[in-house]
Amino acid sequence: MGQHVLRISTPVFRALRQRAPLFTAWSDEKPGSTQQIVVDDDVYNEIIDRAIAKRKTIDDVFLEACARNCGRS
């Protein structure tokens, strides 16, 4: 299975790392407003498809998925 790098905002990176630690491979947080995460093909395709279909940012899609799967908003 392939992997892809996605760039997300630092606040979303922190929220995902806290709420969904098994969702992706984590690296150390770097200084700056964006972070990079590595996701598998299936996660990448799902995120991109949802972002296009709903006309939302990748950050928005990750936050929605986390809220839905983690039971938090």
SSE diagram, text form:
Elements: E1 3-9, H1 10-19, E2 34-40, H2 41-54, H3 58-70
Helix pairs in contact: 1-3, 2-3
Structural commentary:
The protein has one domain. The N and C termini lie far apart (31 Å). The mean pLDDT is 84. The protein is 51% helix and 19% strand. The radius of gyration is 12 Å and the shape is globular. It has helices spanning 10-19, 41-54, 58-70, and strands at 3-9, 34-40. Helix 1 runs parallel beside helix 3 (58-70) and helix 2 (41-54) crosses helix 3. The longest helix is centred in the middle third of the chain and has 14 residues, at 41-54. The protein is of the alpha+beta class.
Overall residue-averaged pLDDT value: 84
Q: What is the approximate shape?
A: globular
Beta percentage is: 15-25%
Which sequence of strands runs across the widest sheet?
1-2
| Helicity level | 40-55%
SSE order? EHEHH
**Biggest beta sheet summary:** 2 strands, antiparallel
| End-to-end separation | 31 Å
Q: What's the total helix number?
A: 3
Concise summary:
By secondary structure, this protein is of the alpha+beta class.
Q: Any descriptors?
A:
single chain, 73 residues, alpha+beta
